[in-house]
Amino acid sequence: MRRLIATHEAGLAALLAALLVAAWRTDPAFVSWRVQSGLLPQIGETALLAVPMTLIVITGGIDLSVGSVMALASVLFGLGFRSGWPVEACAAAALAAGLLCGALNGWFVTRFRVHPLIVTLGTMSAFRGLAEGVSAARPVSGFPDTFLRIGQGWTAVGLFAALTLAGTAVLARHVLGRRIYGIGLGESAARASGWNVDRLKASLYAFSGLMAGVAGVLFTARRNTAKADVGAGIELEVVTAVVLGGTSIFGGRGTLVGTALGLAVLHEVRQFVGWRWSNDVLNLVVVGALLIGAVTLNGVISRRPAGSVEGG
Amino acid sequence: MRLRGVPGPALVLALLCALATAINPAFLSPRNLTDLMLAAAPTLIAACGLMLVVASGEIDISIGSLLGLCAAVAGTLSSPDRLGLPPSLAVAATLALGLGVGLLNGVLVSLVRVPSIIVTLGMLSVLKGANELLMGGKWITRLPDGLRAWGTGSVLGVPVPIAACAAVVALTWLLANRTAWGRRVFAVGSNADSARLAGIPVGRTKLAAFGLAGLLVALATLVSVPRLSLVDSGVGVGFELLVVTCVVVGGVSIRGGTGTILGVVLGVLLLSSVRTVLIFLQLGESSLYWERAIQGALILAAVMGDAAGRRREARA
Amino acid sequence: MAELLRTEGLGRSFGGVRALDGVNLDIAEGEVHALCGENGAGKSTLIRILCGALRPSAGRVLWLGAPLPEGVHRCEAAGIAAIHQEPVSFPDLDAVDNVFLGWEPRRGPLLDRRAMVRRTREALRELGEDLPLARPVGELPMAQRQMVALARALVRECRLLILDEPTAALSARETDALFAVVRRMRERGVSVLYVSHRLDEVFALADRITVLRDGRKVDTLPARETDRDGLIRRMVGREVPEAPSTETAAAGGPVLRVEGLSLPGAFEGVSLEVRSGEVVGLAGLVGAGRTELLEAIYGLRRFREGKATVGGRALRPGSVPSSLAAGVALVPEDRHRQGLIPSWPVSWNVSMASLGAVSRLGWISPGAERARAEAMARLLQIKCAGVRAPASSLSGGNQQKVVLAKGLFLGPRLLLLDEPTRGVDVGAKHEVHQLVRRLAAEGAAVLAASSDMPELLALCDRIVALRGGRISGELRRSEFSEPALLSLILPEEGAA
User: Fold this and answer.
1) Is residue A303 part of a domain?
2) Considering CB atoms only, which of B177, B184, B191 is closest to C91?
3) In sequence order, what are the beta bridge partners of C272?
4) Which parts of chain B fold into alpha helices (H)?
5) C142 CB near a chain B CB, below 8 Å?
6) Does residue A2 lie in a domain region?
7) Would you list the DSSP string of C252-272?
8) pLDDT band at residue A310, thresholds of 50, 70 and 90?
9) I need a surface site. Which of A138, A292, B30, C448 has the fewest CB within 10 A?
10) What is the tally of structural domains in chain B?
11) Which ranges of A113-154 would DSSP assign to H, the alpha helix?
12) Sequence-ordered list of residues with C-beta below 8 angstroms from that of A204, at least 6 positions apart, any chain
């Protein structure tokens, strides 16, 4: 099992290196520190969301509502700002809203024992709709420069790095990490061992919501606009990075290092294609093909039983 | 007849219609109902295909991107501004594309055994990218009359989309309930092990369901896109979520094995009528922004109703 | 009578354990042939081979003189239908679909639905059953589900019907109806292979009886040439093992006290006591409520009425943490689903229920975890390539010891064992028994459920028998005998 993860991560690292070398041969400027560091913030929100998503997918779940929670947080931030609240209060409200949304997901998943795919599909519409409703689809902008600065820099990427380090330690050594893997591999065995499976799952969804709130605020700062279409489609991007990183959609398998590599591959492909051909298009094909290819290869290697959406 | 997924949506739909009619009797006017049906037709056509995929225990979330790509292909092939090929050729190519993509999904799911949510998630990206490559950031406004007729023409006084939709619903009902393959789709979703023991080819059964779903998405494209004033790469965005929502609200269990056409029809009508009802309630323009929140709440209500139903069954 | 089916030297092993060994059996046309034996005698294995679900590892099966085809659906098409064990059933679909799936009659491209409904209705009428044809069979009561499976066999014109414990979930009236069906089938020339623990049913129906023991055939004899006692003697067939008298420690104070515990549908009004140093057995047939009772004490199920205390602490219904805190450990029946995470290393599995003991502030110390797992492995003599080897690489017996180690890690006051040696070979079985005795000698209270009677007789100080969810009696060590235990757990004479 461990060797499989190692090969997957090594493969991804090799792929990333090959990508960078190829990019360097065609256009050395792209691989320069200046360009790379300038482009890095663009993956920030996706990366932030990928941390809780990895943990949730390891338990056998999924959270499709993250983009909508981002939008709701952004919209609430904007509304607060327009009503004259200080930026700190706006941010606090946005984060609280994110946490609440995540907690609601967790409650639905554990209370009704419905597949998280369906629950979060529902809340994905509901939260986005809420964002559209309360904002009436009108954007808010004109935030102070002090606030905008946190979006331009490396806040999100730095936070992601810290979370990845901490999360990797937790997954490898902490009781919580052990339980996260255990739930994904055998929920019955986990319950029979006296673990509070429901509480842990609900906490992960709440964490995911909180991070979506953070991502919503950072996105607002980066683009200087708060509106209801923030984060549309980002959930698919996040899931793609997580699965590309070797996390099994059936649960029980995956690492944050793998996710970081998955994010890096996703990011570099997209940015290089955008840089070279100055359009944002081809990368969708490449990313989708990468995802299918990686999972097909993984499936051929590990020969999992025929898949259904019932992950656990 | 299993009633799961029918009484709930039917009741809510009836209430919504009654409310809208009470405020404005024009809600029940033939014109408004026709508009409603026209809006619902493509969703319902795609939902029929998705119902069979979900009943077989799988899912397809690439249908929105597939609709977009089909629109781009049909437009590019037939528009006088682009290739200007005969409309019939464009129609055939669109249907072939839908079928091909559906079968490809099915092969990856049933033969390579990649989970369907991952396959179709990847396919969603690939098709969206292909669509944008094909459109190249431009849009198509002129479509030949031969293609326009699919969306705006009528057969025996019935608009083509509605006629096509009715035919698809009838055929899907027949397929699901009166053919061996249809019953096997449900059997595979209900208990794959038993199905294998009974000698049912599980993989091939699912493959066909995916193929049919793709074909029906292509048909949904043909009856909806010619009604648009312009085709761009944004066509079909979010369509997969709408269709999945309709199917779930219509009582098709995501675990597979269950689902009725009647439920799906009600689910589609319910979700499609939310907007119209909001307009007729005359709450002001801002009320329309709540459409999606209401759709989301409907899924959650369906989920809770389903859970309550399961608990009752378990107790009985 | 002509011969329908015959097996020659049939054998089957599972990972070194011989479940079936050199069995020769013949079934004649139109006879009801009963198959008897204790749990683990090889009945299920034999049945699964005969209906095509399992391939034999030795010998062969002849069907009408030719080799039996492979696969359940081919055997079904050839005329063999099995009810209960691996039934072809689709809970979401209606009775008509369940009868015809896989061999649907067609008219052109469409199903001949009218013929399907008519033939299903005819078959059900013949079975004397009137059930709603349009409801998903998963919503029907067990007796009616069985009738649907029987209807499928009837419509397919099966020639050999295998009934595996068909009355386990039926009421007396439903059982009578089933008997009538079996007799009518026999009159039509259908052969029936009837497997049941209920010996009075066997004598009521069977023409001939085959007895299996430890995977081998003991005897095939006409039913009228023997009686209940003779049959039990053949099924048991060995001396009752001697009591390990030296190890029977004097029991101390009560640890587990259960009063009037009820869980509707599983067990009712159960009261019992297990004292420190005592091993109490829990006997009963499948469905008697053994597993449910253990799981309720452990907190995996929420009991509705009654009280359970461990060492004076009341257990909260449905709370595993409360039971763990009181010092309860469970070794569950389903090793692969509930007991272990097979892909995990042995050490991780061992510490699963007691991560607190190998961690500080939640951070696991791998050294401490490994050391403790190694100590447990030595103590239980777990044979593995180190505690870092995945649990799935161990033999069944050693896997079971890992599950035991997991339960013992915290030094429980009350150990609940559910089928502690299922699928475990004889040597490992003995080791597990010794270990349990030693634990009891050290002061633990043990409550062990098992369907293996010799095991209970060898292991326990006292046996409590369950029948249909209620306690049907209790045996002290001086009263131990297999016939005595059998008569407590088998349904009462005439009740069927």
Assistant:
1) no
2) B191
3) C258
4) 7-23, 30-55, 63-78, 87-110, 116-135, 145-152, 160-178, 180-190, 192-197, 202-224, 239-249, 261-280, 291-315
5) no
6) no
7) -SEEEEEEEEEETTTEEEEEE
8) very low
9) B30
10) 1
11) 116-135, 145-152
12) A52, A55, A56, A59, A61, A106, A180
Kindly list the residues from chain A whose CB atom is less than 8 angstroms away from the CB atom of residue C359: 174-175
Count of beta carbons in the 10 Å neighbourhood of residue C253: 10
DSSP alpha helices (H): ranges in C312-462? 320-325, 346-350, 366-380, 396-408, 426-441, 453-459
Within this chain, domains C3-236 and C255-489 share the same CATH topology: yes
Which residue segment(s) compose the domain that B260 sits in?
Answer: 7-307
Q: Identify any residues that bridge with C256 across adjacent strands, giving them in sequence order.
A: C274, C310
Does B109 lie at the interface with A, CB-CB under 8 angstroms?
yes
CB contact (8 A) between residue C355 and residue A252: no
In-domain check, residue A59? yes
Residues 202-241 of B with CB under 8 A from A: 202-203, 237, 241
Flag if C337 and A186 touch (Cβ within 8 Å): yes
Low-confidence ranges of chain C (pLDDT < 50): 239-243, 245-247, 494-496
Q: In the prediction, which pLDDT does B43 show?
A: 96
Residue spans of the domains in chain C: they are 3-236, 255-489
The class of domain C255-489 in CATH terms is alpha beta
Q: What is the mean pLDDT of residues A268-277?
A: 80
Give per-residue pLDDT as tens, A203-249. Answer: 999 999 999 999 999 999 999 999 998 988 888 889 989 988 989 88
Could you tell me which of A244, A297, A295 has the C-alpha nearest to residue A266? Answer: A244
Domain membership of residue A102 (yes or no) is yes
Residue A204 structure tokens = 């992960």
Place of tokens 């001086």: C478
Q: Nearest by CB to B245, from A121, A249, A306: name it.
A: A121
Residues 6+ apart with CB under 8 A from A278: none
Are the beta carbons of C352 and A182 separated by less than 8 Å?
yes
What is the DSSP track for A291-304?
Answer: HHHHHHHHHHHH-P
Which of A60, A36, A172, A160 lies closest to A109 in space, CA to CA?
A60
pLDDT in tens, A22-68: 889 988 888 888 888 888 888 999 999 999 999 999 999 999 999 99
**Is A309 in contact with B55 (CB distance < 8 Å)?**
no
Give CATH superfamily name and number for C3-236. Answer: P-loop containing nucleotide triphosphate hydrolases (3.40.50.300)
B140: CATH: 1.10.3470
Domain-located, residue B228:
yes
Q: CA separation (Å) from C159 to B286, C27, C33, C71, C185?
A: 71, 11, 13, 17, 9
Cross-strand bridge partners of residue C25: C7
State yes or no: ipTM above 0.90: no
- pLDDT tens readout for residues C88-144: 689 899 999 999 998 899 888 899 999 999 999 999 988 888 888 888 888 887 778
Please give the tally of structural domains in chain A: 1
- Contact of B297 with chain A, judged by CB distance below 8 Å, is answered with yes
User: What's the rounded Cα separation, in Å, for the pair A70 and A168?
Assistant: 25
Q: Is residue B301 a part of any domain in this protein?
A: yes
By CB neighbour count within 10 A (0-12 exposed, 13-18 middle, 19+ buried), where does A148 fall? middle
Structure tokens at C252: 């101390």
> Could you tell me if A125 and B293 are in contact, meaning their C-beta atoms sit under 8 angstroms apart?
yes
The boundaries of the domain holding residue A54 are 43-298
Q: How far is C9 from chain A (nearest CA, A)?
A: 34
Instruction: Report whether pLDDT(B167) > 90.
Output: yes
Burial B87-109 (b: 16+ CB within 10 A, else e): beebbebbbebbbebbbbbbbbb
Structure tokens at C494: 């005439």
Contact: C90, B187; criterion CB under 8 Å: yes
Sign of the torsion formed by the C-alpha atoms of B86, B88, B89 and B94: positive
Q: Supply the DSSP symbol for C390.
A: B
Question: Does the residue B313 lie in any domain?
Answer: no
Which chain C residues are closer than 8 Å to A186 by Cβ?
337, 340-341
